[in-house]
Specification:
The structure is a homodimer. By secondary structure, chain A is of the alpha/beta class. Chain A has nine helices and twelve strands. In chain A, strand 1, helix 1 and strand 2 form a beta-alpha-beta unit.
C-alpha cells in the first residue's frame, strides 16, 4: 500500500513491502481520474498499457474499445471491469487472463433502491405521485409481508440486512437450495412457482445468463398473488415484458417497479411509460455519484491484493458468464 | 375476557372472572361492526348508551355528533376515540370522564409510510414517477444518512426500529432532551435549528398542539441542507406551506413528501399538486384497511382493562391536548 515500492518493478522478496505493479487505466475517459487515484491508493504504479500487467477499464460506455487495447498488451494478466453485469464484455473474456468485475460492490445502493421501489409500489405511489387530486386510499404494508428475493448474491445479502426492522418472512430463490444466511427459506430456482405464490413482494436480484433470460414469464406472473408487486433491479431481460403487461392488465399482479428495462434506455414512445401500475426509474439504483467511490475502493483493494500476489475479489467465472 | 361474565353487571368479587361492563359503540356507522366485535372480544357487553359506562366512538367522520350522544349518557366513565390525533374532539373533552385515543396504535404503518416517502424523495421518484422519458441520474442513499425525527412518540419508536438496517445517524427532537432509546442524539425542541442543519432527511412525527403549529417555518427550512428532504406524516399545520414552497423554489431544500396537508383534502386547484419537488399522498400512511384491525386490537385490550378495573392505554392528557 506504500508508495515507497512504486518505483520498483522487481518481485518483492520481503513479505512486508509488496512490489508495485504497473497498472494501466484506459481509456482516458469515464471514471479514469478516480480510478487512477484508486490504483495509486492500492500501491500500484500508473503506466502505459504495453508496459502494464493489469488493466483497469475506466469507461463503462465504451466496452467495444477493450479488445483493441488488449491486442497491443500481451503482458496484461488481469483486467478489471467497472460494472457488476458483464454482458457487454462476454465476447472478449480471454481465459488466459484473470477478469474481475464489480460484483457486490454496488450491492448496498442497489438493494436500497429495490426496497424503495417495493415500498413505493405497495404503498400506492404509482397512483399518488401522478395524481392531481386527493385519491381514495390504497396500499399495503411491507411490515410482516412475505418477500421473495430471486438471486443469492451481494444484493440479496444487503436486502436481508435492510429488511431487518420490517419483520418480513424472506424466501431466497437460488440455483441450489443451500440455505442463505438471514433468509427464512431458501428454495431452488426450479421450485420458484410455489415460492412466488406466497409472495407479497418479489425482487429480482440475479445475474443475467442464458438460463435466466425471461425467468419471470407468464407462468411465474400467473403464480403470483393479485396483490403482489414485482421489483426488478437486475436486468430488463429477466422479465418477459409482454407477459408482464398482460398480467397487469388482467389484474394477475398489482404492479411492477422497474429500474431496468429492455431495451434500455426505454424509448420515449414505449407504452410502458403510460402504464398506471408500472413505476420506472432509469437504471439509477446505483448512480455514478453513489458508485464511483465504491468502485474506487474496490479497485484499490484489488490492486493491493495484486501487488501482494493474493487472490482478487470479484473474479469472473468465464464459463458461467458472470 | 370470558363471555361467561357478560350477563352479570355486579362488580366481581373474584380476581379471576372480571365483571363485564356495558359498552356502547356509537354511531352505528364507520367502523362500528369491527368495534362491536372488539368490545365482545375484550369481555365487554354491547349495550345502549344510556345504560353503558363506556362509549367507543366508531365513526371518525362524525366527531360533531359526539356531544349530543354524551348529553343523554351521564354514566359514561370512559370515551374511546378512534384516531391518534384528537383535534376534532378538543372542545368536548370533559375532565369528569376518562378519554382515550389511538395514540401509538397506528405507529407502525405510519412510520413505514414515512420511510417510503423519505426513500422515494431521496432517490428521485418525484421526478421519475412523473417522467415519460429516460431521465438523467439523480438521488442519494438513505444508508449512512443523518435522519432527524421531530417527535418522540410511538411513530419515532417505530421509525428507529425500521431504520435498523440502514446505518443512519438518528437525532430525535423532542420537548425535553432526555435520551430516547435507539436514537444517537436527542435534542430539545428549542435546539432544533442545529439538528436540522445536519439532516439529510427530516421526518415530522409529533402531535399538533398550539406550540407545534408551524414548527417548520422559514428559519427551519433555511437551516436545512439544499440536499435534504422533508417528510410529514404528522399534521399539515406543522409546516408553514408558503415558507416551504419558497424554500423549494430557492433550492434551500431538495424536496418535501407530505402525507398530510392543510387544508385537507387538498383542493384540486391547489398549486402544490403541480410542484415538481413535492410528493403528496392523501393521508394514507395508515389506511382504514391497515388501521381497523389495529384499532380493534387496541379497543379489545382497553375493554379488558376496563372490565378488570385497570388503567387504560392511550389516555388523553386533557390539559396538554393530546
Amino acid at each position: 500500500m506504500s508508495n515507497e515500492a512504486s518505483d520498483s518493478s522487481d518481485e518483492g522478496s520481503s513479505g512486508k513491502v509488496p512490489s508495485a505493479k504497473i497498472v494501466a487505466v484506459e481509456p482516458k475517459s469515464g471514471r479514469f481520474e478516480s480510478l487512477e487515484a484508486a490504483v495509486v491508493a492500492g500501491g500500484g504504479q500508473i503506466g502505459p498499457v504495453d508496459e502494464a500487467t493489469a488493466l483497469v477499464w475506466a469507461d463503462p460506455a465504451r466496452p467495444g474499445d477493450l479488445p483493441g487495447v488488449l491486442e497491443s498488451a500481451p503482458a496484461i494478466e488481469w483486467v478489471a471491469l467497472p460494472y457488476s453485469g458483464i454482458e457487454p464484455y462476454l465476447g472478449f473474456l480471454d481465459p488466459r487472463r484473470v477478469w474481475t468485475c464489480a460484483r457486490g460492490v454496488y450491492a448496498r445502493p442497489v438493494a436500497e433502491h429495490a426496497i424503495m421501489l417495493g415500498l413505493a409500489g405497495m404503498r400506492g405511489l404509482a397512483t399518488y405521485a401522478r395524481s392531481r387530486t386527493w385519491s381514495p386510499p390504497e396500499g399495503v404494508n411491507l411490515t410482516d409481508a412475505n418477500v421473495v428475493i430471486i438471486g443469492a448474491g451481494g444484493i440479496a445479502e444487503e436486502l436481508i440486512s435492510l429488511l431487518d426492522g420490517f419483520n418480513c418472512t424472506i424466501t431466497v430463490v437460488r440455483r441450489r437450495a443451500s440455505p442463505m444466511d438471514g433468509a427464512d427459506n431458501t428454495v431452488a430456482i426450479e421450485d420458484r412457482l410455489a415460492a412466488l405464490a406466497e409472495a407479497d413482494l418479489v425482487i429480482l436480484a440475479l445475474a443475467l445468463t442464458p438460463e435466466t433470460i425471461g425467468i419471470i414469464g407468464a407462468a411465474e406472473l400467473a403464480a403470483m398473488k393479485p396483490s403482489a408487486w414485482l421489483v426488478n433491479v437486475a436486468r430488463g431481460d429477466h422479465i418477459d415484458l409482454e407477459a408482464l403487461v398482460d398480467a397487469l392488465d388482467n389484474n394477475a399482479i398489482a404492479g411492477a417497479a422497474l429500474d431496468v428495462t429492455s431495451p434500455e434506455p426505454l424509448p420515449d414512445s414505449h407504452p410502458l411509460w403510460e402504464h398506471p401500475r408500472i413505476l420506472i426509474t432509469p437504471h439509477v439504483a446505483n448512480t455514478p455519484e453513489m458508485g464511483v467511490p465504491l468502485l474506487a475502493a474496490h479497485i484499490a483493494e484489488n490492486v493491493a491484493r495484486f501487488c501482494r500476489g493474493e487472490g482478487l475479489t470479484g473474479v469472473v467465472d468465464i464459463d458461467a458468464g458472470y
